[in-house]
Write a structure and sequence with these properties.
There is one protein chain. This protein has 347 residues and is mainly α. It has a single domain, classed as P1 Nuclease. The chain is built from 13 helices and no strands. Helix 7 packs antiparallel against helix 8 and helix 11 runs antiparallel to helix 12. The longest helix is centred in the C-terminal third of the chain and has 36 residues. The chain is globular and about 55 Å long. The structure holds zinc ion. Zinc ion (ZN) binds next to helix 4 and helix 8.
């Protein structure tokens, strides 16, 4: 069925952002969508109805990046940087409560990031929602959770040197996860392992984080080698070909692991909820943030745009004016079609 006309421009806006290379520091929107689609298909046989149920949860996997513009607390939910802590710090021993963990680490959320706690919080919400038959909320929390799970599998979301800024490799974040991955990664490279019940989600999330962080040195080294092989440039095809050659295994295995782990968390929520019957899928999920209720439109009234840097504001203005024009074309053409069909039916 066609969605109600009023949501079309929003949907278009979201789809347009999928194609923007560096709208946010995160896997390109395309990868979030591929991960969610594959994770839905990876639901175990006893949860087979979730394969259809999760279909409208695919696109909302990109919404958390779009909430950043209107919710200043959103950014910190997308990363966790264990290398901010003392070298002998044990991340597995950190409190499972976010506020207590931040107090124990001695950092504000935006310094270290809080992705692991965001994931376990949304997992608990998804589980409760399934248990109480609130399937719309379950779908929304599960879709939002997918984003943070995918982000944590991107190694540069697990280090304080997230953009190579400490090693004179500025821009490596977007070059790797967005530009390179969009150019070379194909969804058929994903062959996830079967989804399993996760006994201790907090511990599992920290294990994924630790593994992701362990890949950082090789990724930074690959950037140095690729740049050298491309005559000192990072904007050439030969640079990207070399970078892909050196990081393909890591990137593919991380995206694949994100699929396995996401489907495992969805399965875990359902098992812990008592395996309730899964309903028919919703047609579409609301775009508003599950954390703060903000929308995905950064120009919405009341958003804290005044606090954003001028360059970001200009960039947003360009994006949103392009979207406005596209939305206008869609509305005008549908009005035109409506008039034509009325004329054809003699009304
Ligand atoms: Zn993100």
């Amino acid at each position: 069925m066609t969605p109600p006309r009023s949501v079309l421009p929003l949907r278009l806006a979201a789809l347009l952002l999928v194609g923007l290379p560096s709208a946010a520091l995160a896997w390109a929107g395309a990868q979030h969508i591929q991960i969610n689609r594959a994770a839905g298909r990876n639901a175990p046989d006893d949860m087979a109805a979730f394969r259809a149920f999760s279909r409208p949860m695919v696109l909302p996997g990109i919404y958390p990046d779009l909430w950043k513009a209107a919710d200043l607390d959103e950014g910190a939910r997308h990363y966790f940087e264990p290398d901010r802590l003392a070298p002998d710090a044990d991340i597995f021993a950190l409190p499972r409560d976010q506020a207590q963990a931040l107090a124990a680490m001695g950092f504000r959320a935006e310094i270290t990031g809080v992705a692991p706690w965001t994931i376990t919080d949304l997992l608990a919400k998804m589980t409760d929602a399934m248990r109480t038959n609130d399937w719309l909320w379950a779908a929304r929390c599960g879709a939002a959770m997918s984003h943070y799970v995918a982000d944590l599998h991107m190694p540069l979301h697990c280090t304080r040197n997230f953009n190579g800024q400490e090693t004179w490799q500025h821009g490596i974040h977007t070059r790797l996860e967005s530009d390179m991955t969009k150019a070379f990664f194909q969804p058929d490279m994903i062959t996830p392992a079967p989804a399993v019940y996760v006994e201790d989600p907090f511990r599992a999330v920290m294990e994924w984080t630790a593994h992701s962080a362990s890949l950082v040195p090789d990724i930074l080294k690959a950037d140095v080698i690729a740049k050298r092989s491309a005559g000192g440039r990072v904007d050439t095809e030969s640079y990207y070909r070399k970078l892909w050659e050196l990081t393909e295994d890591a990137v593919v295995s991380q995206i694949q692991a994100a699929v396995t782990h996401l489907s495992s968390l969805w399965y875990t929520a359902w098992v812990d909820a008592g395996k309730p019957p899964i309903p028919e899928p919703f047609e579409e999920l609301p775009t508003a943030s599950v954390h703060s209720g903000v929308g995905i439109d950064p120009l919405a009234e009341g958003g804290p745009l005044g606090t954003l840097p001028r360059q970001k504001k200009a960039y947003d203005a360009i994006i949103w004016s392009v979207m406005g024009v596209v939305a206008l074309i869609v509305i005008l053409s549908s009005l035109h079609r409506g008039r034509q069909s009325r004329r054809a039916s003699g009304k």
